[in-house]
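Lab channel / #folding
Pinned by the channel admin:
"Please post every new chain as: sequence first, then the structure tokens as a reply. Keep commentary short and put observations after the output so the thread stays searchable."

First post following the new format, from NK:
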Amino acid sequence: MAKKRAAAATAPARRPRIKRIEINDFRAFPGPTPVAIDLDGQNLFLYGENGVGKSTIFHALDGLFAYGMSKAELAGALRDQANRFTPEDKRGHGTVSVTYDDGNDAAVWSAASHPIETQPGPADPRIVNAAWTKAILSYQSLLATNHDHGDEINLFDICVDSLLRDYPLVGGDRLGEVWRRLTDMLERGQIRDAQLAQINADSRMFNDGLTEALTAILPLVDPILDQLGHTDIRVRALRPKRIAYNNSASKDGRGYDDCEVIPEITFHDAPVEYPQYFLNEARLSALALAIYFAGRKLAERQAVNDMPRIMVLDDVLIGLDQANRIPLLDVLAEEFRDWQVIVLTHDRVWFDIARQYQRVGKADKFWAYWQLHQPRDHNFAPLATNVDSSVAAQALTTARQFLKDGHLHAAGNAARLATEFALREFCAVKDVMVPYVAPPAFLPASKFLECIEARDTEKHYASIIESVRMYTTILLNPLSHGGTPEGFPSEVRGAIEVVDKLLFSLKVLPTSELKRRSHAAK
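Reply from TO:
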């Protein structure tokens, strides 16, 4: 008992996690009513078509978890991104806020203040610490690691601006803070001996710190590449040069020479001189993700234990096909379980595949799933709705609503979709083998039924299988096409109930299956 009490006393406090995000009069979200998304401390997977407001969430969180900006810059950033459709008399009241699950007040970014400000202060430590460790990445962030570099990739700007900005140096400063102090010196009217001595001292501290940080991050990159399924790419070195102040007499000529961090990359153990031209899009995306993730893993070792950690990924997987996207979910689950992750995507297929993968793996309990829809009238904010982790269950909800509103064709079509998704989910959960089709394509519902029936030798699901077959052949197919409906609302309702039973059967294990799984576990 004493040991348990001692362990509890030394264990780090639980990190606060975001319960709710609210955005008002910011980019695609006009005021005066805020758009609210409830996470309840979970990770967030959000789908929305292009132009509906996903990037609004990205930029809102990036601005809230800001660092190194002045009060005027923060107020200007909020003002400049106000929505043009906000009513004239409601403008100037834009806000971005997050409420944590720690019981304290929400952290609010408004024209009057920002949570990182110390005046009137104090600054919100939850926002300040999360801002330094954050990983808020878009596809453009990944491109910056391997495009627009000319013939030689130089990761210096990425290292000091994001990848290693929060690496702690001797004396307590962060790498990014020292670099900002050095660049601020360039704006001074005159560099005297005292300022030159400070530049030289900071340059030595920066050079030593950058070399140390790159040495620390290098062993973390390849294991993440392995997890992403790219064992053929290796990062052998990240070689920095030592920066030097050029001490120009004119202000316009001042600067720092040798600002370079050059990666050495191999493919199948052969050196790759120009990886941006040689490697394909999938490998370049995986390489960029591995480098960024390694930087955040390094940051994790240095961060205050009880402070939030946030990661926002905005369509970072555009360059990867569906098969290469699933490993990312495993990396997030295994390497960033203590982070709160927000994934934004415009790809509906990926949204559905990810939900099914996480549901089958019982990881959906750690995630909240939301959709954004844009009303036809842009004077109104996008509609944010919470959806089920089960694609089939979501389709059933849609079918019920259509039926309630009297849209029989639409209800039948939604019920048909729910049936197909439920059968796929059943086969995935129950380990039912289905044939592979080349090229890969969706199998018809009848084929899934045949596979389930062949596997169900003890006839545990015979009645459900027969009911599903009846409704798909007699009712759902005619109702999902044009013409005069031949069914009745009661029959559509019956089809919905059958799919409901099919989904419920996923939670119930027959005695024989319990024995089989118990034997397999041994």
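NK: The chain has a mean pLDDT of 86.
TO: also worth noting, The chain is about 45% helix and 15% strand.
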